[in-house]
Amino acid sequence: MMLNSGRLLNERIKTHPRKIAVVAKSEQLDFLTLNQRANRLAHVLAGQGVKCNDKVGILLPNSPEFVVAYLAVQKAGGVTVPLDMKLPPKDVDAILRFADARLLVTLPSAESIADIKQPMVTVEKEQIKCKGEILHPPDDDWGVDRSAGDEATYLYTSGSTGQPKLAVLTHENLSCFPRVVQEIYATSSEEVYGLLLPMSHVSGPIAIQELIEHGTTLVFLDLMTERRGALQSIQENKVTLIWGVVPLYRLLIHEAKIRKFDTSRLRILAVMGMETPVDFMREMSQAFPHTAVVQGYGLTETSGVVIGTPPRDAVRKMQSIGRPVHFMDVRIVDAKGNPLPPKRHGEIVVKGAAVMKGYYRNEAATKERIKDGWLHTGDVGCLDEEGYLYLLGRTDDMIITGGLNVFPGEVEDVIRRHPKVKDVAVVGLPDPGRGTIVKAVIVPSSEITKEEILKFCRLNLSPFKCPRMVEFRDDLPKTSTGKISRGALRRMEKS
C-alpha cells in the first residue's frame, strides 16, 4: 500500500501548511489552501460518481487550477487524463472517449464547445460549477490509499507514425521522479522549480509528485506571452531549478541579454528533449554565469527524466545527456537488440521502475515498444567509458545516403552556426540514385542564398553529409513543447 499524491498532500500540511506551494502570475497558494481546494473538488468528483480507477480528463492551462484538479482526481482514487489546451475540441472528445473518461475538468469557457460531449465540472480559482450550478462542497480531508501498481495517469503521446497513444503511468512510476532529482541534482525541500513546459505532458504529473513528496515550490513561467515576466518571476521567487527545451531557452537567453535580472539563486538549468549543440550550452552558461547548465533525458514512457548530468560535471560532460540513476539500467543495442560496447552507436533502451505500464488499449504498440522489460526509446546514442550517454537523434530521423549514416542533428549544428541562419531542420528525401538525400529546411535571419549555405557546409562537413537540397521558409513546424518536428516536415514533403 502506498499513498497517492492527493493523499500525500494531507500529510504535507502537517509539516508546513503555510509554505507557498504553487506560484502563478496573479496567485499564490500555500499547501493548506491547495489541500482545501483539492478536497472540495474531490468531494464534487465523488458526487458525480468518480470511483477508484475511473478516468477523469483535465483540460486546463498551466495554472493552480491544474494542480488542484490533478490532486483532486488522485484524492478520489481516479486516473487523470491531462489534455493539451492546443488540441482541437474534436480531438479532445475523441481521446476522452477512447480513455473511457467519466467526465472532464476544465474552464467555464469550455462549456460552450459543442464538440466536447463528456459531462463537465468547471473550475476557476475557488469556484466550482457543474451543469451551470455553483457548488459549495466541504473541504474536509479526502484521500484514497492506492497501491504502487495502480494506474495514476494516462498521458497522450504520438509516435513517429503520428498515431496518438495513451501512455499508462502507475503511482510507482510517478514516485521515481522525486528520487531522480535528489540523486542527480541533490535537491532539497527548499528547492523552487520553474516550470516552462506544459502541465498536460509528463512534466505536469512529475512536477506535482515532486511538489507533494518533498514539499518544494512550483512556479509557473510563461515565456510565450510573458518573456519579461518570466525573468522577473525567477528573480522574485528565487527560482533554483528549471527544466526545459532548447526553443524555450533561446527565448530566455534573449531576454537575459537585453534586461538585467538577479538570477543568482538559479542553481541548475537542465536541457531536455533533443540533441543539443555544445555551442548553445556555452551560450546558456554565459547568459547565466552562476548556473550549472546540464543536459538530461527522459520520455513520457519513462515517467520523465531518468538520465542526467550532475552539476559537478556540467563543464566536463557538457555534450553528454548524463548517466542513468541507480535504479534504471541503460544499454545501447544494435538492430537485433544485442548490447554494444562504448563508443558504438545504436538504439538507447532502458529498464527499471520508471518504465510505463504500457499503452492503454494498445497491446500491439506496447509489445513493439517494451521487449523483455526493455523500453526501446527510438533514440540513437552511444556511451563513453564512464557510462555517460550521448544523444545523436531519432532512429526514424537518421538518413542513410549512399549506404552511409547521417544524423540530422550534426548537420543542423553546423548550419545553425552560420550568422544568417535563425533556425534549421534537416530531413531525408527519397532518391533513386542514393536511396536518400539530405535536405536542409532553413529559417534565415537575413538575406542568404542556397550557394552560401552549401559552401559553408562543404567547409565544415564531410561531403556525404552536405545537403543536396536547400529550402528557405518563414518558420518550422513545432511540437506543443516547442521542439522542431522533423516528422511533420517529412509528412509535408510526401504530401
How would you characterize this protein structure?
The chain has about 500 residues and is of the alpha/beta class. It folds into two domains: about 5-385, Rossmann fold; about 395-495, 2-Layer Sandwich (GMP Synthetase, Chain A, domain 3), CATH 3.30.300.30. It has 14 helices and 28 strands. The strands form six sheets. It has a nine-stranded mixed beta sheet, with helices on both faces. A six-stranded mixed beta sheet has the order 4-3-5-6-7-8, with helices on both faces. Strands 18, 19, 21, 22 and 23 form a five-stranded antiparallel beta sheet that branches. Helix 8 (about 225-235) crosses helix 9 (about 245-260) and helix 9 packs parallel to helix 10. The longest helix is centred in the first third of the chain and has 17 residues, at about 30-45. The protein is globular, with a radius of gyration of 23 Å.
What's the gist of this structure?
The protein has 495 residues and is an alpha/beta fold.
Structural class of the secondary structure composition? alpha/beta
Beta fraction of the residues? 25-35%
Helix content: 25-40%
Q: Mean pLDDT, nearest integer?
A: 92
**Approximate shape:** globular
Please give the domain count. Answer: 2
The CATH topology of the largest domain is what? Rossmann fold
CATH architecture of the largest domain: 3-Layer(aba) Sandwich
Q: Rounded to an integer, what's the Rg over CA atoms?
A: 23 Å
Q: Could you list the spans in which at least 5 consecutive residues all have pLDDT below 50?
A: none
